[in-house]
Amino acid sequence: MLHNTVDGPDGRWNVRRIAAAAAEKTYRCPGCNQEIRPGVAHVVAWADAGDGDDRRHWHSSCWEMRHRRRPGR
Description:
Blueprint: E1 4-8, E2 11-18, E3 27-28, E4 35-36, E5 42-47, E6 56-58, H1 60-64
């Protein structure tokens, strides 16, 4: 699967967009602490310097606004 690398104030991230049709599991978004249900398009992100163990699934809007709020809020 392809991903993009983005630079932000919180570092460099690898980001993969997951289409709704490919979203088959339930995940917990670290941005809002709510579930991402199957069938919901979302983002998977992990630190560029890491090995992928820090990979997290985010609501797309939470990912875009991550600099404006604390985790879980």
